[in-house]
Structure formats: C-alpha cells, structure tokens
Amino acid sequence: MANLKIPEISNDATINVALDTINKGKQALIFVNSKRSAEKTAEEVGKKVTGVNEAWSVLSTKVMKVLASPTTQCKRLCGCLLKGVAFHHAGLAAKQRELIEDGFRDGVVKVIASTPTLAAGLDLPAFRAVIRDLKRFCNRGMAPIPVLEYLQMSGRAGRPNYDTFGESICIAKSEAEKEAITEEYINGDPEEIYSKLAVEPVLRTYLLSLIASKFVRSRKQILEFFGKTFWAYQYEDMGKLEEIIERMLQLLEEWEFIKSSKDDFISADNLDSVTYRATLMGKRVAELYLDPYTANQLVEGIRKTHSIKYGDFSFFQLLCNTLEMRPLLNVRQKEYDIVEEAIMKYEGTLLGSEPDYFDDEHGDYMKSIKTSLFFMDWVEEKGEDALLEHYGIRPGEIRYKLNSADWLFYAMEELTRLLGFHDLIKVIGRLRFRVKHGIKDELVSLVRLKGIGRVRARKLFRNGIKDVRGLKQIDVGRLGVILGKGMAEKIKKELDQDVSVVKKGTRKGQTSVEKFIK
DNA sequence: GGACGGTGAAACTTCAGGTTGCCTC
DNA sequence: GAAGTTTCACCGTCC
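Above: the input entities. Below: the structure tokens describing the complete assembly.
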C-alpha cells in the first residue's frame, strides 16, 4: 500500500483520483456497481475536465452515429466523450463499447467509469484501476463482492508496455472501512472455485446431453461418471448426490426427453442396470443446448395452442417465462397499472403460466408481462429511444433480449416440428422474423428482399408498395425517387433475376440474418 | 403581493453480466 | 444498503 497525495479538487475522492490521473497524463478505469453510477461518475469527471481536444470530438461524433436515432444514453455518452471521459456497461450498443475500448487503447479516452463489464475478459489495462464500490446489490440487499472479482478489477492496473507499475485504488469512506477493505480484499484470500455442475439447470442439461450422445447408458455409468467430476469431489456426500441425479432422471423421463428400461423386467435390487436412452425430442433438446426445464415449458406452451385463442403476445409471454430470458425487465411502481391492465387484456390467451395474485410467483409474472410488452412494441417498430423511455431498457440490453428471443424462437420452431404442429411452425417462424427485424407483420414480405431493411420497407409501404408484386409493377424511375436511383436499379435487377440471394445485417446493430428468395 | 428561481432536506426509486442454434418462414 | 433522482417546502429577489 502506498501513500498517495491526491489534490482535492472536488469533495468526491473518486473524481479527484480520476482528475489527478488525467493531470499526470495517464489513464484510469473506475469500477462502480451500477449502470447509473457509471454514467453519473463519468459525467461528474467530465464536468471538471478543462480544455478541448480534436480527437475527443471526432470520437464523440462517431459514437453518436452508431444508432439510427440516438437515445438519451447516446447523448450523455457523447457529452462525456467531448471531455475525453466515457462510461461503459452492458447497456451500450456493441459498436459503442468497441469505439470506447479502442479509444482508450489509443489513449484518446482518459477515464472510463465502468460496471464489471470491463473487469474480465477484455485486455484493457490502465495506469490506475479505481475500485469505488466493493458492495453490490443482490436479493438480500447490498453484499460484498467476491475477492476474486476485486482481483480481476485491480488486475487492470499497470500497462506492461507503457508503465513500470500500476496503481489499484479502493475508495473508503472512513478509517474503519479502510481497515475492513485492507483485511478483506487487499490481504484477503480469494474464494474457492465451485463446480458449475452444482447448479441444477446446468446439471440437467448436461445429464440429458450425456444420455443423448450415448456417452452413458446405464444408471451405474451415470453415477460413475458424476462420481469422477469436480462437483462430486467438492460435494463429498455421494448419497445426496445420487438423490439429486435420481430426481433429475425422473424429471427428464416425466418430460419425455428420456426413456428408461425400468418397465422391462428388472428387479429392485438391480436398479443400477436400468438403462436410459434419449427420445427424439430429448435428442433435439440436447442438440439445442436447451435447459430441459425450459424445453418442457415450451412443449407445454405449444400444446396449449390447441385449446386457447393465442396471439403474438402469447408467444412472447411463453418465452419470457423461461430462465433463459432472465433477467426480466423490472416493473416500476408507476408501471403497475399498465402491467395490470395488460394482464386483464391478455388473460386466458397466455401460453405460459398465469399465477394467482397472491402467489409467490406473481412478481416474476408481472415482470414477464412487462418484458412481453416490450417485445410487442419492438415488433410495432418503436425506436430504441422510445423503448429506453418506456421500459428503461438500453440499446445493449435490447440486443441481448433479441438474441435470446431469436434463439428460443428457433428452439420453439424445432420442438413444434417434432410435435407435428405443422400449422404453427409458420406462425412462429414469421414472428421470429419480425422480432429479428423489429417490424410489423405488413413489412415481412418487403424486408425479405436483399437491401431492404425496416426503414426502406416502411418508406415503400408508405408509398403504396406493399409487397414484391408492387415492386415489380412500379417503374424503376419512380422507385428511384423513393429509394434512390442505385438502390432502385439493384432491386429491379434482383427481382428480374429471381435467384437465391443471401442477405446479411438487419435493424441497425442487430445480429446478422440470412434470407432466401425464391 | 405574486411570480420566479435557488437551495437543501426528505421521500422515493432502483440496483452487474451475456453463451447456446441454423439456413426457413 | 446506498446512490441517485424527484419532490417539496422554504427563502430571497425582482417586478
């Protein structure tokens, strides 16, 4: 531990350290525990930075152009960048994150205030790593972060090629806190690493894939296999472990993902020789890397379509009920009415569970409804700025949600196929396509064409061109007025050729899609 | 005297991260 | 549990 003399420019120690680093001509990473704090801290540091720099405004302009219509978050970030400061968290669009990281590596960005996004994985060293928060919110209030995580963050200090040393600084508010931090973190031992198999979703996914790949067949082999894992080594109690595996096997069988030979003539004392094999459905679930629990929820939802009147919302709510879609969007106090209203509106049309008001799960249910409403607005072509405003969901988070939804929709399509619900495959496929592109149903046929995304499709639609036939009928000159000459010619050529074309890229910043036109 | 703006205390709200599949609608 | 935001009461100033 070193004694640092930091000039007290403001009454906030974190900001003082950041400013001191800039004045030394060096760079700092500041780690905080929430997105909001990251944004606020970056803004506060920026306010105290004097002077201008051409490179700062160039980067700021670049960042502003990433999204088609900049959100309030973009504007805030760009304001910070004009002072050579940035914030960084999972809510940023991927391209913006990349620009900031590159800007930091190039030395343009002097200070980044970040959530733990920057702590792991990314090689982004700084002269100083300032760890402001050593506590983070969890279900039971604020909890100290693991020592391992502290080490990750402080490990960012010191750039091998530029500095001979680095400084990792924790911020304490009192002498007592300073002592506690020293003991817990600076001199503390990192936690033991625990096997991920101990988590049930991982265990059941793994168990099914072992059976599906025929790596293990009998109960005995299964137990032997798990007996040799790191999980068993840590758990020590093999009896308890067997119990857990047995319960999992029962569930997998109940969900019809595996079939056992128990029905054949096997005596109770010879239970170990019971063999298991995956059903066709089980095999596909394993191939999809889907948690069997989720797969079963999807299967039940798909079956339910036979007995209820369903709509787009029903499918979104089914997805939002899965573990994969978590964390769901939080329902704020002022949003209770809106969510309750939606519950009333869609009552009886849902494919996922509909718990009672007094049920423990009602809170999660409300969240699933809010998240489904977000998806509804997305396919109603609401912009990212509007979504941030209405749902508090940032562009980066939208991407993760869409990515998960796309994957789950794909899984749902596959399960629907296996269940033989042929009419439903098209319905799900079409909705999946709309989610990918963020478009209303009416734009689907236009967006299938190469070079036409949601913006151009909407332009065409407004001009009365609603499908491929409309595009074929319109002359190239008029089409040029709407889309530009070059684009019009390209589209006309494409339509005449009537060949398979591969298209990549969708709604700005989205994952790539491929389409086939016949 | 009323409109307006600034200030600070109290009340209220919200809280990190990011892989998996595949070629079709 | 605590940071950050919003709300509201209070006060001073100006017209």
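Note for the figure: Residues 395-419 of chain A form the longest helix (25 residues).
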